[in-house]
Design goal:
Blueprint: E1 2-3, E2 8-11, E3 16-18, E4 28-31, H1 41-46, H2 49-59, H3 66-69, E5 75-76, E6 89-95, H4 110-116, H5 125-137, E7 141-147, H6 159-169, E8 174-179, H7 185-188, E9 196-200, H8 206-212, H9 218-234, E10 240-246, H10 254-266, E11 271-276, E12 301-305, E13 328-329, E14 333-342, E15 347-356, E16 363-368, E17 371-376, H11 383-388, E18 398-404, E19 413-423, E20 426-437, H12 447-462, H13 467-473, H14 478-491, E21 493-505, E22 509-518, E23 525-530, E24 533-539, H15 545-551, E25 561-567, E26 577-585, E27 588-589, E28 593-597, E29 606-610
Parallel strand pairs: 2-6, 6-7, 7-8, 8-9, 9-10, 10-11, 11-12
Antiparallel strand pairs: 1-5, 2-3, 3-4, 13-14, 14-15, 15-18, 16-17, 16-19, 19-20, 21-22, 21-29, 22-25, 23-24, 23-26, 26-27, 26-28
Helix pairs in contact: 5-6, 12-14
């Protein structure tokens, strides 16, 4: 169980730090003190009682504030607990530089917060500086600064100063602006460099647009988008410009959606996001469970959800395609191809991730059957990559390429996809992947389907049905299940233990060494028995970085290594012998496990113990 609150920080305009979900804003985590000269973000915020409650809750598999957390769209019940704040790493630092707004959107909480929240409603630059300077003093890594919130950031007349100061203090951090776009671009953003500009424009026709964006003008927003795109193309550094389009019941007609895509193709922008919302007025024609029902004609289209819910849409192969997703390549980089999707309108999407040693990959070129499809130069963050492959330095790894494949004969043929990786324009390497697209609708199951299958697999294991037999019954899911089987099996265990050494020196001194990981509260002690005789106790296992690094995508961070040495009082014969270990956590004894051995035998094998 996990939430992004331990790698994301959200600071309100008045300096209040809260959870960054709509429901989560009710949870106050602390306050930025700009008056104190010795305010420290670690001592005064990350180590306070509120964060202690967050850590205690998630590390023990419970919600810190059940009434709030159960409604949070950012809660990941199946994810493992990872505390990046303790590692001095913040992925996103969000600043509400303005609670004031120039629109009156009916489902936004802005009007309530303006009346109920204490000021200031325009963030002083000093609040921004206090947070960043404290992080810098503590040697934090910061990936991104975001300007957003319940108001519009461009209502703050000092916006350009915020961006410049952010560059000075954290020059490597990316900066993103989210705005409603009802502003003059030059007078608000001007010549400051932003890595991404997201402009909310829900509808192309004024009569529909204004139903939600009350007080706004769609022509003004479109001019802002065009000016942002032109500035991005002419600027010294690359800026991604995104048109964000929330799907309401009054903005989801085919006519408006198709006209929007036609205009997006002409505008100097990079992406058109169609957003599924959870608020009143949400579209009932188009649902997140079936995003491809939307008539897509532009390669710029992507599907997302409000509150950044990961619906696994981008990785679900729902078009008529069939491929082996197991293209995994070794040194000098790791690359994984997750998706090759052909949409009904002949839009081809390729997605995956690539990780390399410093410096990271800067460009990928994609060739289909020897023909250049396109290139990717912007990569996105993927938490799961570094949980599984911690040996790579943290970097943006995810890539996605969408191209018009109308002129490419794809169906019922085998194809070669060649991806060439570059570092700073120097060739790093390449790999080739072969796949077939079928016209009969056959597809690799989406991860949503796979989760259901794995749930069935878990029940089958509990009934004693071997996994291979279950897979044979569902050959369509075999490819996915074979990859997820090992992870699901590990998640079903009470603990995982490995006895690495059982040895005797001088005939009577017994040494036992290994490690143990638990899904429950961490193991606090081990009772050691030899042939039914109690030998002693191991308390407080030690830290073992290699064990956690290789299994932290399954188990939470914890001390895992144990070592036990005792004088048996007499020489030990060759055997056979039986070593028994009973682990204990805060709730009491777990299931004991035994290891038969001879003194002349090889080190013991991995011992798996299932939950009761």
């Amino acid at each position: 169980m996990f939430c992004e609150i331990l790698h994301t920080l959200y600071v309100k305009s008045n300096g209040l730090v809260v959870c960054n979900d709509d429901f989560g804003e009710a949870v106050e985590l602390g306050m930025v003190d700009t008056e104190s000269t010795d305010w420290d973000i670690v001592a005064n915020l990350f180590e306070n009682s509120r964060y202690a409650e967050i850590r205690a809750g998630f590390s023990n598999g419970r919600l810190p504030w059940p009434d709030v957390c159960s409604k949070c769209s950012l809660l990941r019940r199946d994810d493992v607990y990872v505390d990046r704040l303790r590692r001095k790493h913040i992925i996103r630092l969000q600043f509400e530089v303005s609670l004031a707004c120039n629109l009156r959107c009916p489902y936004c909480s802005n009007h309530v917060q303006v009346r109920s929240k204490t000021g200031p409603h325009i963030m002083p630059l000093k609040t921004f500086e206090t947070v960043l300077q404290s992080l810098k003093r503590r040697d934090f890594r910061l990936d991104m600064i975001e300007y957003l919130g319940q108001g519009d950031p461009l209502m703050n007349r000092d916006f350009q100063r915020f961006v410049r100061r952010g560059r000075e203090l954290f020059p490597k951090a990316k900066q993103r602006l989210v705005t409603n776009g009802n502003f003059d671009y030059q007078n608000t953003v001007g010549d400051v460099h932003l890595d991404e500009v997201v402009v909310s424009c829900d509808g192309l026709f004024q009569d529909n647009y204004v139903k939600y964006r009350v007080g706004g003008r769609v022509d003004k927003v479109l001019q802002f988008i065009q000016d942002a795109g032109r500035a991005a193309r002419n600027g010294p550094s690359r800026t991604t410009v995104v048109w964000k389009y929330i799907l309401f019941e009054w903005t989801d007609s085919d006519r408006e959606i198709l006209a929007t895509q036609e205009l997006a193709d002409r505008l100097p922008i990079d992406k058109l996001w169609f957003i599924f919302t959870h608020s009143l007025g949400k579209s009932v024609r188009f649902l997140p469970e079936d995003p491809f029902a939307i008539p897509v004609t532009s390669h710029k289209v992507q599907f997302h959800n409000t509150c950044a819910i990961d619906l696994l849409l981008d990785r679900a192969t729902l078009g008529p395609s069939n491929f082996d997703a197991g293209a995994l390549v070794e040194e000098p980089f790791f690359a994984y191809l997750e998706e090759i999707t052909l949409y009904k309108n002949k839009l081809l999407r390729i997605a995956g991730w690539i990780a390399a040693y410093d410096p990271p990959v800067s460009r990928l070129d994609f060739y289909l059957n020897g023909r250049l499809l396109g290139s990717v130069e912007k990569f996105l963050w993927r938490d799961d990559v570094f949980e599984v492959f911690p040996r790579f330095p943290e970097q943006d790894t995810a890539f996605r390429l969408s191209v018009d494949a109308a002129e490419i004969p794809l169906l019922d043929r085998y194809h070669s996809l060649r991806i060439i990786a570059f570092k700073n324009d120097q060739l790093l390497g390449a790999y080739e992947h072969y796949f077939q697209m079928k016209s009969d609708g056959a597809a690799i199951p989406s991860r949503r389907e796979a989760r259901l299958a794995v749930s069935e697999l878990s029940h089958a294991l509990s009934r004693g049905l071997p996994a291979p037999k279950l897979i044979e019954k569902s050959p369509r899911l075999a490819a996915v299940l074979s990859k997820l089987y090992r992870r699901q099996l590990l998640r079903a265990l009470a603990f995982l233990a490995h006895i690495e050494e059982i040895s005797v020196s001088a005939g009577r001194f017994l040494k036992v060494r290994g490690w143990i990981l638990s899904h429950r509260p961490p193991v606090s002690r081990l009772e050691i028995y030899l042939n039914g005789r109690h030998l002693g106790t191991v308390t407080e296992p030690k830290w073992r970085p290699d064990t956690v690094a290789s299994l932290c995508h399954i188990f939470a961070d914890q001390r895992s290594s144990f070592r036990f040495v005792t004088d048996l009082g007499e020489d030990l014969e060759d055997g056979p012998h039986e070593l028994s270990i009973t682990p204990y956590d805060a709730s009491g004894a777990l299931e004991s496990f035994t290891q038969p051995f001879h003194l002349s035998s090889e080190p013991a094998e991995l011992a798996l113990v299932t939950a009761g």
